[in-house]
Amino acid sequence: MAETWLIAGLGNPGRQYEGTRHSIGQLVIDELVHRAGGRLTSTKARVVAAVERVGARGGVPGPRAVLVKPLTYMNVSGPPIAQLAKFYSVPPERVVAIHDDVDLPFEAIRLKLGGGEGGHNGLRSLTQALGTKDYLRLRAGVGRPPGRMDTADFVLQRFSAGEQQTLPIFVGELADALEELLADGLEATQQRWHSR
């Protein structure tokens, strides 16, 4: 049987958090589901999810992936993701967390396996729930807060008017990077996106 991946777009639930920096991972999930022609549905695991083929190439379907948006708040998003990974028998090395990163400039894309959480509550919750740091991360640069603004306040804001003009392109590129990660592996995908 072909390997299954679990792709989790981290963010907060609810309309008030849609389009905020902290929920950029969820925008990427929406884009991936749209590309696959699928639809997210509610599950017992407190997530909305779709099981789709991701990243078709040359008419060949891409790998099977469970695309997930937790319905819990960021700081407790790990358990439902881990529950779904267990249900679909997805090991941590095939779990990808898509998340905002204030240590990267807006529109920067980085990928890595394992490492620290950098103060990100969603990653901290996922690490605890999976029992390991050794899962993949697709890091979406959202920039640093201006002046002395609190980081938590900054990431819960919507993108600026200028950023919103290029946000759809950025989200599309994050989805491209995710598809390449599944098809080509971590190192090749890092080489392409880290050097641009």
From TrEMBL:
Catalytic residues as annotated in Swiss-Prot or TrEMBL: H22
Q: Which domain of life is it from?
A: Bacteria
Q: Which UniProt keywords apply?
A: Cytoplasm, Hydrolase, RNA-binding, tRNA-binding
* One CC-aspect GO term: cytoplasm
Residues spanning the signal sequence: none
Q: Which family does it belong to?
A: Belongs to the PTH family.
Designated name of the protein: Peptidyl-tRNA hydrolase
Q: Which organism is it from?
A: Brevibacterium rongguiense
